[in-house]
From TrEMBL:
Gene Ontology annotations of biological process type: filopodium assembly; positive regulation of excitatory synapse assembly
UniProt keyword terms in alphabetical order: Glycoprotein, Membrane, Signal, Transmembrane, Transmembrane helix
Signal peptide positions (record): 1-19
Domain Immunoglobulin: 24-123
TM region(s), chain numbering: 130-154
Main location: membrane
Localization: Membrane
Keyword Flavoprotein: no
Gene label: Vstm5
Protein name: VSTM5 protein
GO cellular component: axon; dendrite; plasma membrane
SUPFAM superfamilies: Immunoglobulin (SSF48726)
Pfam families in the record: V-set
Amino acid sequence: SITFTLITLLCLSAPGGVSLVVPQPNINATVAQNILLSVEYSCRGAATIEWKHVSSWGTTKIAEWKSGNYVNISTVYKGRVTTFENGSIQLLNVGMRDAGYYFITVTEEYGTNTYGTIIVNVYEIIYEDLHFVAVVFAFLAAVSAILICFMWLCNKSLHLCQKKATHKLTASTTEEIELETIEC
């Protein structure tokens, strides 16, 4: 493996302990997205990399590995984590519980170590909420249209009834006037 040899050479030739670079300390993701927690380290000897996740639900060890040797991924993250030789990890299909702080510790074989932190914010997709609002709005618009039609029909019926009543009233008033004039 050429990559492992190159990293080992970098670690052997780096002066003075362990260095760690975290290019993106804040990551925003949506539910079901895959995210890369990217880091790059250098050291004098072989390094042990450990990732932990800290959130309101507690602290969970994600993975630990030694360059070129074993990789130990916790059962909670089995099938969801991919590790890389540069110290980075990829989380697949993130959920709301994956939000929080991710701590990486790189320890070289001589005992020197360094730490890095990445903050991950996970947001829910709001399309379902927008769909619900659209359905409720369409329902209210339909009910409003039906009520407006009903009010129009009631108004039309009322005008017809008033017209008939006015016509009957005019006819009966005319008859009374005629009757009165005849009696005198």
